[in-house]
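To the wet lab folks,

You asked to see what we're planning to order before we commit. Fair enough. Below is the target structure as tokens, and below that is the sequence we designed to fit it. If anything looks off to you, flag it before the synthesis order goes out.
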């Protein structure tokens, strides 16, 4: 296996990062925080964390939260300590100053004390004197005139906010759990419907693949002149008629959604073009078209050997996409379906003599991109193919069977 950055990263993630993260979660994070998944425990953690965050305890709030949460758990009260630790960040270096000033103003209002300004605080500290006198004055002002009002205000404010936060958070979490439960049930029903739809589709597809199926006895027409598409179609259905369409192929100059839509429309147009020129009231027409995309350029069928050489020189040593559209037309009902598949081809570097040899062959003018995998020595010239080989060769068999199953061509008319 070739070692690339995605492969190395996937191996490192699966064998190192995820096991270490799982070990830390089971042995450290969950035992330390005692994570609870119930709505009640999370709501209690939010309320306690918010209470501690609104008190003047900046710097030790998370330690206090872990202690308070542990005490509540010992008392039999579920408390999500992780939610509490997160709520402690309500008080942070950007918010604690206005919060504590609000606490002080509220406490001073409740104690009916005048609010001390900075200059008044400074005037109450003696400029001269012993250290004991200065510290005594600072303690008197800081504890009695500032600390007590601040703590009183913080307790009142924290109680007023944290108590209602518990039922509000609990109601919100329960509603979220209800919606999440409904969403999971909806996903389960949708997955069940998809499984049943896939099962019915598989049964129809298996019925289509039956060699005795009715559609194989109808007139089968391949609206293509591609030798490889004809060769692949022989493995699916034989006998059949090969009648190429006679119309001008017009596609956008740049890849994208418009190109996919135009490619499918072109395949349908080829089938309808052949249907208009034949008398087949009960026929199935198959048509397809393939383009090669290299970068932002669309490579169709080359018009000359020189253009084949130019295309191969451009594709050699690089990766390019191959888009193949397929359409099926039921002349008995007039219904038609189309689809498109893509694959990525990684070509190795081609020697100049190999490019010259291939560009001199007449078949190079009949295929998009100027090459065909059956002509190249695939093990030595193709590094790998991301996708189905049938798509690159011009007839995605899986898409063909899916379209036949969706078209229900075996249903009696």
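Sequence we intend to order:
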């Amino acid at each position: 296996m070739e070692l690339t950055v995605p492969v190395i990263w996937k191996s490192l993630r699966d064998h190192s990062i995820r096991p270490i993260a799982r070990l830390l979660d089971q042995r450290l994070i969950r035992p330390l925080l005692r994570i609870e998944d119930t709505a009640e425990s999370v709501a209690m953690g939010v309320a306690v964390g918010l209470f501690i965050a609104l008190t003047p305890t900046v710097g030790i709030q998370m330690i206090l939260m872990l202690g308070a949460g542990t005490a509540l758990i010992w008392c039999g009260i579920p408390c999500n300590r992780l939610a509490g630790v997160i709520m402690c960040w309500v008080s942070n270096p950007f918010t604690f100053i206005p919060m504590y000033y609000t606490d002080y103003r509220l406490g001073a209002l409740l104690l009916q004390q005048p609010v001390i300004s900075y200059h008044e605080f400074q005037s109450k500290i003696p400029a001269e004197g012993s250290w004991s006198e200065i510290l005594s004055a600072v303690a008197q002002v800081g504890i009695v005139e500032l600390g007590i009002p601040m703590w009183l205000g913080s307790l009142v404010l924290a109680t007023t906010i944290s108590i209602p936060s518990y039922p509000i958070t609990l109601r919100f979490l329960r509603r979220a759990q209800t919606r999440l439960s409904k969403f999971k049930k909806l996903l389960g029903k949708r997955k069940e419907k998809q499984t049943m739809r896939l099962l019915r589709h598989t049964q129809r597809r298996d019925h289509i693949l039956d060699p005795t199926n009715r559609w194989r006895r109808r007139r089968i027409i391949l609206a293509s002149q591609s030798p490889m598409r004809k060769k692949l179609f022989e493995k699916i259905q034989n006998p059949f008629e090969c009648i190429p369409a006679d119309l001008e192929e017009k596609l956008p100059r740049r890849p994208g959604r418009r190109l996919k839509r135009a490619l499918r429309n072109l395949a349908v147009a080829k089938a309808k073009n052949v249907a208009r020129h034949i008398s087949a009231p009960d026929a199935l027409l198959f048509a397809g078209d393939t383009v090669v995309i290299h970068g932002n350029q669309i490579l169709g069928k080359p018009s000359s050997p020189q253009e084949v050489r130019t295309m191969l020189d451009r594709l050699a040593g690089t990766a390019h996409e191959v888009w193949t559209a397929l359409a099926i037309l039921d002349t008995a009902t007039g219904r038609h379906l189309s689809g498109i598949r893509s694959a990525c081809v990684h070509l190795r570097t081609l020697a100049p003599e190999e490019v010259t040899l291939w560009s001199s062959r007449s078949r190079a003018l009949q295929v998009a991109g100027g090459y065909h995998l059956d002509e190249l020595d695939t093990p030595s010239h193709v590094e790998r193919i991301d996708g189905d080989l049938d798509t690159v060769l011009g007839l995605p068999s899986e898409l063909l069977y899916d379209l036949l199953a969706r078209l229900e061509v075996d249903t009696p008319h």
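Structural context that might help your review: The mean pLDDT is 80. The chain is about 55% helix and 10% strand.

Thanks,
Computational group
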